[in-house]
Design brief:
Blueprint: H1 6-29, H2 61-68, H3 75-78, H4 81-115, H5 117-128, H6 135-152, H7 157-167, H8 172-188, H9 209-221, H10 228-242, H11 253-262, H12 282-299, E1 304-306, E2 312-314, E3 331-333, E4 336-337, E5 341-342, E6 361-363, H13 375-393, E7 400-403, E8 436-438, E9 443-445, H14 465-472, H15 482-490, H16 493-496, H17 501-508, E10 512-515, H18 526-540, H19 545-557, H20 561-579, H21 584-591, H22 595-614
């Protein structure tokens, strides 16, 4: 067979394709396999390798191709241009209709989202106050709360998320996360939680009981100073080789850190922070507002320390508590001020030998030692040490004594007006109370019978609730029971105005006194002082009784004045953020960040308050 040229090969392929199309057309038009009628049918061309048409080269390829294409369908037969145009118009109309429907659905959803913001903010306040919440969840909820408040102040979504992200010291990614978290919370009151640390893990050495027992024993021995580095060295050098692992495997420091987390330890410094259990209780919050208002008045009379070393003085207007262990202890009662640190006389000041040089009292509590610290001991310390030393160091100044809510700080004098200490009838084991005044006319009344009372058995004896109420005209004809009479008496203005023993003594000396709210140790900067002193004791004591006695005075003197002033400044910052309406956890989160974030949020809350007033 002669060799075909390139043009002949193309023609052969065209003929084969034509033959296939003719056969398909014939099968579609008729079911007859053998038909002699050529009308309406397409003839197929038989292509034979011996066909002489391939013997010689073609002179006119175009003519032959046209001859071969006779009877085939044209392109417009396969693609109807009119129909195609109509369908494309219909598709474009349907696309426009669907896009408009989608836009309308988005607008409706966006409107519903804005309408749900007030309800979402109310749920956020409840969720933020929940206890036992993970820190990452609490941070997300606070970020969402700030974001929604900015949206209410007519911020755009993008600007609001950027503001919250910048306040948290984050970037663009966190801003996008805030936007998505807020949208999800408003629509479903839920946020996506992180799955970090919840995925399946490989085999752990802690699954071995022998290893776990030795790890727990070692961690308990070093529970106050354990670190991942220490646990890693103990595992690699002692525990695993000692259990016969050959060759002995090793763990990485990251694995040791995960083991500590699995055992319930957190990578943080153990220190006194905020009492969360009753921090936001209604009565505590109510008194906190009163305390902050009173403290705000006193702050104008206190010095402000600034500068790098906190030496510049200006005058305005001119973390879980450790349980106490068993064994012998040392009790320390100290007075602290940010002006001079520990309340004590300067070394250059000369006084008599019977005059105490410092307000600090150190005792050894216990039944067989110095006894127990009582209210009388505190009163003696204030009268004999604190007030005289203050007046000697700061003549002409007025002191503000601030106490926490310890039971020894809230005791009353023996003759104080306390209704619950009174009996219903005269005499008996009830205290002899002081003279008082009642009514708008300030009528004088003695709670004790006079020495010339007509009944000799009742002379200089307590009158009791019934007689006192009769003299005031408050005893009903049907009578009262003991608890009812005590309740009625306790509601009288003179009984309500009764102050504690400590407050009466300090006010009588010409000074002021205030009590911190319950569960608010962050407002009392002496708690930070105790923490620093205890840390020094733990690091420098040999854990013997003699060593402890030697270390405690050194620990009290180890805290410098600059550190005490930093503690005081932080306490006043807590007071400032509480005045602006932040809760305990929000204040703790805010003050852990840098100062410029605190300034930013202060300006933000001022703007938010102004916007609310405009609304």
């Amino acid at each position: 067979m002669p060799r075909l040229t390139k043009c002949q090969k193309k023609l052969r392929k065209a003929c084969e394709a034509k033959s296939i199309r003719q056969n398909i057309s014939i099968n579609d038009d008729s079911n007859n396999d053998n038909s002699d009628n050529d009308d309406g049918n397409l003839k197929s061309l038989d292509v034979d390798d011996n066909n002489p048409v391939y013997d010689e080269p073609m002179e006119n390829d175009n003519a032959q191709q046209c001859e071969a294409a006779k009877g085939t369908l044209t392109l417009h037969t396969f693609w109807d241009t009119k129909k195609s145009t109509t369908s494309s118009d219909e598709r474009s109309d349907s696309d426009e209709q669907s896009s408009s429907d989608e836009r309308s659905d988005d607008e409706i959803e966006d409107c519903n989202w804005y309408n749900k913001i007030p309800a979402a903010l109310e749920n956020l306040e409840l969720d933020i106050k929940k206890e036992n919440m993970k820190s990452e969840v609490w941070v997300r909820l606070n970020g969402i709360c700030l974001y929604l408040q900015l949206i209410k102040c007519n911020y755009s979504k993008m600007n609001a998320s950027d503001v919250v992200s910048n306040a948290a010291g984050k970037g663009v990614y966190h801003s996008k996360c805030i936007h998505s978290w807020a949208h999800e919370y408003v629509m479903s009151h839920q946020i996506p939680y992180s799955r970090r640390g919840h995925h399946a893990k490989t085999w752990s050495f802690l699954w071995d009981e022998d290893i776990l027992l030795q790890v727990n024993s070692y961690v308990r021995e070093h529970k106050w100073d354990i670190t991942p580095q220490m646990l890693m060295m103990q595992m690699n050098e002692v525990i695993l080789p000692g259990l016969g692992f050959a060759p002995s495997p090793t763990i990485h420091i990251n694995t040791a850190r995960n083991y500590l987390k699995e055992l319930g330890y957190t990578y943080a410094k153990v220190k006194k922070g905020i009492y969360i259990d009753g921090h936001e209780r209604e009565d505590v919050v109510a008194y906190r507002k009163i305390f902050l208002e009173q403290m705000n008045e006193f702050e104008h009379r206190m010095p402000i320390f600034s500068g790098d070393d906190l030496e510049e003085v200006t005058w305005p207007d001119k973390q879980p508590l450790r349980k106490k262990g068993n064994g012998r202890a040392i009790h320390v009662s100290e007075f602290l001020t940010d002006v001079c640190g520990r309340l004590a006389l300067p070394n250059e000041m000369q006084v008599s030998n019977d005059f105490s040089r410092e307000a600090c009292v150190i005792m050894h509590p216990g039944k067989n030692n110095d006894g127990w610290w009582k209210a009388d001991d505190l009163v003696n310390q204030v009268v004999e040490r604190a007030i005289p030393i203050f007046e000697a160091c700061f003549p002409g100044c007025q002191a503000l004594f601030a106490f926490d809510n310890a039971s020894s700080h809230s005791t009353f004098s023996p003759d104080a007006l306390i209704a619950k200490s009174m009996n219903l009838n005269p005499g008996g084991k009830q205290p002899k109370m002081r003279r008082t005044y009642f009514g708008d006319e300030r009528i004088q009344q003695d709670i004790v019978f006079s020495s010339d009372y007509h009944n000799p058995n009742l002379r200089e004896q307590p009158k009791g609730l019934k007689q006192v109420l009769i003299e005031r005209g408050l005893w009903p004809n049907e009578g009262l029971k003991l608890e009812e009479a005590r309740k009625l008496m306790s509601q009288q203005p003179d009984f309500l105005a009764q102050k504690g023993r400590l407050e009466e003594i300090i006010v009588a000396a010409g000074h002021k006194v205030i009590f911190y709210p319950k569960f608010h140790c962050e407002l009392n900067y002496i708690e930070n002082f105790w923490g620093a002193a205890k840390k020094f004791s733990q690091s420098n004591c040999d854990y013997s009784w003699t060593g402890l006695q030697r270390t405690v005075p050194l620990a009290l003197a180890s805290v410098p004045l600059t550190t005490i002033r930093r503690y005081a400044r932080k306490a006043f910052r807590y007071m400032d953020v509480y005045r602006k309406g932040l809760t305990g956890k929000a204040a703790e989160f805010l003050l852990k960040n840098t100062v410029h974030i605190a300034v930013f949020l202060t300006q933000f809350y001022n703007q938010l308050t102004f916007s609310n007033k405009l609304e």
